[in-house]
Amino acid sequence: MNNIEYVTTLLESMIQQGRSKAEIVRSVAIACEGWPYVFGAWGEQCTPSGRRRRVRDDHPTIVTACQVLSGKKSVCDGCKWDLPVRMFDCRGFTDWCLKQVGIDLKGEGATSQWNTKSNWVLKGSISEMPKDKVCCVFVQKGNTMQHTGLYLGDGGTCECSSGVQYFKVMKSKWTHYAVPAGLYDETPTPQPPDPDKKPTLRRGDAGPYVTLAQTQLIQRGYDLGSYGADGKFGAKTEEAVKAFQRDWDLTQDGVIGPVTWSYLSSTPVKIEYTVTIPHLSLKDAEALAALYNGAVISKEGDQ
Q1: Element (H, E) at 264
Q2: Domain, as residue range, for 9
Q3: Residues near 89 by beta carbon (within 8 Å), at least 6 away in sequence
Q4: What 3-state DSSP class applies to 136?
Q5: I want to staple 88 with a disulfide (CB 3.0 to 4.6 A). Which of 92, 135, 137, 215 is the partner?
Q6: Cβ–Cβ under 8 Å, residues 62 and 55
Q7: Closest CA to 32 of 65, 4, 62
Q8: What pLDDT sits at residue 220?
Q9: Entry pTM
Q10: Burial class (CB in 10 A: 0-12, 13-18, 19+), 226
């Protein structure tokens, strides 16, 4: 299984090589194979605290598949997803893959995404799907699209159901397809002005390099809120950039130029761990947390 850094490096390399948007989506999707399914997740790093924010009674695996939340262990060590990796549900996975090439599907769920006409240039029954194009595929039951994934244009599919799964041969369950708007237009994936120099980014920018910077900020412990690495340089991203610059004694202008890029690429990645200590008093917990930079305290149940 690949980790976040591997997939980020793959994405950056393909952009620099001038590969097509469809090629990038196909390769990035396959590279995520094995990453976990968490209902409501759109591509944030899989951590116990991140899973806890998504907990729902009708999706018990959010807890049971996590060795920390389920009480099997107090830390992530030994978990198959302790790499780190990202987590998705089905429509979160397709949405995240397309965001890596600057395509932003409108709609919160598979049905609303399907029903938003501006998302697509072509759609219809699965029997009419162009076999040589990367498409979103759907499973319709009644009037709703209950599942979605990616057809990869080569006979195979990628979907996030029991985690991200890659199938070399498409299964018969899919009922509809849709070709995302912008995936096959003549606008190339944004290229850096120089292969060894990433573009300067500031508030208002969008695209895969923004996603890359956001990913690196998240990896280093900077909060981007519910937006995550969405490829849009907004106020939350600017705030995180300034915090990063402040922590490394850089000019706090919220702009990602050559120096900030260099620090983002070379500074250590932050891995989040959760340690559960039953029956510890608040005073003792605060004293313990003070010994570790960045440690936070949360209380669960009667602990």
Answers
A1: helix 258-266
A2: 4-180
A3: 37, 38, 39, 40, 41, 160
A4: strand
A5: 92
A6: yes
A7: 4
A8: 84
A9: 0.66
A10: exposed
238 and 138 housed in the same domain: no
Q: Residue 232 contacts by C-beta under 8 Å, 6 or more apart in sequence?
A: 104, 206, 210
What gap in Å lies between CA 149 and CA 87, rounded to an integer? 15
Q: Is residue 303 domain-resident?
A: no
Listed in sequence order, the residues at least 6 apart from 63 whose beta carbon sits closer than 8 Å to its beta carbon are 51, 55, 69, 70
- Tell me the pLDDT band of 114, cut-offs 50, 70 and 90: very high
Which residues have CB under 8 Å from 264's CB, separation 6+? 213, 216, 217, 220, 244, 256
What mean pLDDT comes out for the span 174-189?
83
Q: Could you tell me what percent of the chain has a pLDDT over 90?
A: 55
Residue 162 and residue 219 in one domain: no
Q: Do 63 and 74 form a contact (C-beta atoms < 8 A)? A: no
Do 248 and 214 fall within a single domain? yes
Read off the pLDDT of residues 228-283 as tens digits, 9 standing for 90 and up: 778 889 999 999 999 999 999 999 999 999 899 988 888 876 555 556 677 777 77
Kind and range of the H or E run holding 127: none
Q: Is it true that the peptide bond before 208 is cis, omega within 30 degrees of 0?
A: no
Count of structural domains, the chain: 2
The residues near 73 (Cβ < 8 Å, ≥ 6 apart) are: 67, 79
